[in-house]
User: Fold DDE domain-containing protein from Methanobrevibacter curvatus.
Amino acid sequence: MRYKCCPNCGSRDVSLYGTKNRELIFSDRGKETFKIQKYICNKKCNGGKSFYFSTNIDDIVEPNSNYVKKFKKEAVELYAEALVSTRSSANIMNSENNIHVSHQSIQNWILEMPEHPKAEPMTLSGYYAFDAQWVKTNGKWSFRLLLADIKTELIIRSKTYTEENEKNINKFISKTLINQKKIAITTDLKTEYKPIVEKLGFKH
Ligand SMILES: [Zn+2]
Assistant:
C-alpha cells in the first residue's frame, strides 16, 4: 500500500507483518501466484487486541474469487459479442489461457453483471460479409474487422486489432461464428482472405 493506514481505526501507526500468497487468474497470462503484503496495526484497536490486514486489491479482483475482474468481463463480453454459448465461452477462454474455467462460472458472472446479456444465443443465417479496414483513432492506426449477417443485414461483431495478419483474422471469424451455421463468407478481392475463409469451412 502506498499510504499505509489501518482500515479498522484509521491509524497510520502500522507495521509490515509478512506476506500471504494469493492465486490470481488473468486472461492474458493465466494463473500466477502473488505475494500480498500483510500489516499489523500497532494501536491494538481490535478491542485491545492486534488488528491485522493486508493490501487491498479489491479493484483488481473480488475477495472471494481467483479470476480477476478483467477476466470475468472478457468472458462475459465474448459471450455477448460473439453470440456463443457459455460452454463455448468457457472453451475459448480455456484454450487461450491454458487454465480451467467452467461454463457454470461464466453463467454466474453474466448474472452478476448489472446489465447482463440475453440468455440464449442468436441464430445466424450462415451467409456472412467480412470487412476489414484501417481506422485512425486518437492519432493511432488500428485494424478493424467486421462481420455481418447478409440475410438480416445486422452487424454481428466488430473488433480492432493492432496488426493485420492471418492469425487475427482467423481468430476473429472463428470466435464470432462458433456454433453458427457455416455456409459462405463474402470478402473483398484481397487474395489472402480466400484460404483463411475456406480453411474455416466456409465457401468464399
Ligand atoms: Zn487499527
